[in-house]
Amino acid sequence: MKKILLLGSGELGKELTISLKRMGCYVIACDAYENAPAMQVSDIAEVFNMLDKEKLNEVIKLHRPDFIVPEVEAIETEVLLEAETNGYTVIPSAKAVNLTMNRDRIRDRAKSLGLKTARFAYAETEEDLILEAKKIGTKVAVKPVMSSSGKGQSYAKSEEELRNSWKFAIEGMRGNRKRVIVEEFIDFDYEITLLTILERSGKVSFCNPIGHFQKRGDYQYSWQPAECSDNVIKEAQEAAKTMVLDLGGSGIFGVEFFIDKKGGVIFSELSPRPHDTGMVTMYTQNYSQFDIHARVLTGMPLPKIKLIQPGASHVILAEENATGNYTIEGIEKALEDENVDYRIFGKPILKSYRRMGVILSSSLEGAKKAANKIFVKSLE
Q1: The whole model's pTM is what?
Q2: Catalytic center residues
Q3: Which of 120, 128, 196, 364 could share a disulfide with 312, CB 3.0–4.6 Å?
């Protein structure tokens, strides 16, 4: 029985834990709060701040896992680099986790590998941000170098908006790096996530591209397959393959691209684990992204991944400024529609715009229709 130390226990970690448990693995789910989603289906749980170097080291030495599997950004990655040196296996690799936990490091790496990116710069003060933004263009995107699920991201044109973006980015950052990336606004046609699979043998394969839409920098809905030209798919696959082979290890990577109005493929971001937009694969593929990650990280043979039907996913969101205990209503109404499924994540309390579940359907229209019938209500 393989022992998995899961660092981060959100909805993606929950689905991954279910896939690992089906394979007979023993899972220790870790997060900074009690009763996180993955803890509800794991063997045991550890509640602690994963940015605490001493505590993270202590947990690793206590459990001596076969695999250390990060699921979030807020981790002291230097501990993982050290753990890998000491013989532990970090998924997909300590290098991948260390680079991708910080937008500046992975963006610099992508540029050095020759990938096409938006023009970008970094700022560590509000005044630096204003200065760098003026060099880049009239409209820019501002993001913390370390955050998750779109937290702290915004667009800005004026000096006043840039000052607000600085504050918003610092409030949304994870970790202790008070630094932002300011990048050229890309007037893109659409965005895709290319789920890219790297096996221990070095073999690289891909799922069908996933289209997605974001709001407030956070995923709202996705669909698979995204309609892309053969040239777009080929260019995206080549770029993704270059990135994952450089990062090394084994696992599934969510590689995001902007597709501009001329069909140009521009690297956006990379996550070295299952991706929120990839939840649609629970409906569309013979093996979901979580099943794939579980098989590849444990070194099990991977069957051919097939798209068995088109589909879409749509988030079930808490309202702005929502807090406390809650109830979810309208699921019965949503299931009256044909070809609709759902997942409730089991998060213990509400937060503003927090993802509480996801609708799965055979079409984007169907997913939106079903999601509009569901309401997350605060009991406070």
Answers
A1: 0.95
A2: 148, 150, 256, 269, 276-277, 355
A3: 364
